[in-house]
Amino acid sequence: MQIFDRAVKRRQRQRAMLQAADFDFLRAAVADRLLDRLEDIRRTFPLALVQGCDSAWLQARLQGRGGIETLISMDAVPTAAPLHMVGDEELLPFAERRFDLVIGLLNLHWINDLPGALIQIQRVLKPDGLFLGAMLGGATLSELRQAWLAAESELEGGVSPRVSPMAETLDGAALLQRAGFALPVADSEVIRVTYADAFRLMRDLRGMGETNAILDRRKSFTRRATLLRMAEIYQQKFPAEGGRIAAGFEVITLTGWSPHDSQQKPLRPGMAANRLAAALDTVEYPLGDRASPKR
């Protein structure tokens, strides 16, 4: 299923790359969270791949953290960074069992075939290699989405997709398991930001390369009256301290390991050392039986 216009997204990312330092607050915050998780893992990663970020930028943030020795970056657009490759996340240009670690930094939510992309990531990981990814989730920019829907319904009698559809946290672990990862985990966090108004928010989205790239997006210019009404509704419904507006970015973090014999395995039924009934201080009944009702 084709949801996003990947050519448009590449052009947006290319423009954003020219001024990335001015709009990298979200990417920097998420990168620091991912690196904190890496520091909790007591091992080294001789060769790592990061998607969605030039290696020079992330290398400056690493500063010896995370156990990464050599870092290769890949993005849909070229950068001046060393060890950088231009490539498409939907068709990874790497041999199997190549990397000890793959990091996806805020790039997976613009991929049409997310299950397929995760399968390819699992394919290029060495056995017992780690995938650590962060993508924007379904609660992202819900305030902006609601303001646009209300303004268009009121003034134009219909609505158009303005904010990208995104995955939910509950889908994350299932997608990792489907892709063949072991020990899959998905969790989410909402990063709250305030802006002077809706126009400043949209300027930041353009600067981050996170503007609309849906295939079914409206191709014509937005009416001025609709735009102003959207900003007014946003201010009324989602005010923040000091006359500002609130915006939320839900970040879903995905963690999975390439299968290996050394990893923990779930016990077979009946192999547990302790029984659940004993922990709960209750009576255990065989399957099909039930306790007699008290009189």
Shape, principal axes of CA atoms:
globular
Number of helices: 9
Q: State the distance separating the first and last CA atoms.
A: 59 Å
Structural class: alpha/beta
Q: What integer value in Å does the Rg equal?
A: 23 Å
CATH class: Alpha Beta
- CATH architecture level-2 label: 3-Layer(aba) Sandwich
Number of domains: 1
Major β-sheet profile: 8 strands, mixed
In total, the number of strands is: 8
Percentage of β-strand residues: 15-25%
Which properties best describe this structure?
9 helices; 295 residues; 34% helix; Rossmann fold; alpha/beta
Outline the structure in words.
Strands 1, 2, 3, 4, 5, 6, 7 and 8 form an eight-stranded mixed sheet that branches. This protein has a single domain, classed as Vaccinia Virus protein VP39 (Rossmann fold, 3-Layer(aba) Sandwich). 34% of the residues lie in helices and 23% in strands. The chain is of the alpha/beta class. Helix 5 crosses helix 8. It has nine helices and eight strands. The radius of gyration is 23 Å and the shape is globular.
Write the layout of secondary structure elements.
Blueprint: H1 6-17, H2 25-39, E1 45-51, H3 55-62, E2 68-75, E3 84-86, E4 99-105, H4 114-124, E5 125-136, H5 142-156, H6 169-178, E6 182-195, H7 198-208, H8 224-237, E7 239-240, E8 244-257, H9 276-280
Parallel strand pairs: 1-2, 1-4, 2-3, 4-5
Antiparallel strand pairs: 5-8, 6-8, 7-8
Helix pairs in contact: 5-8
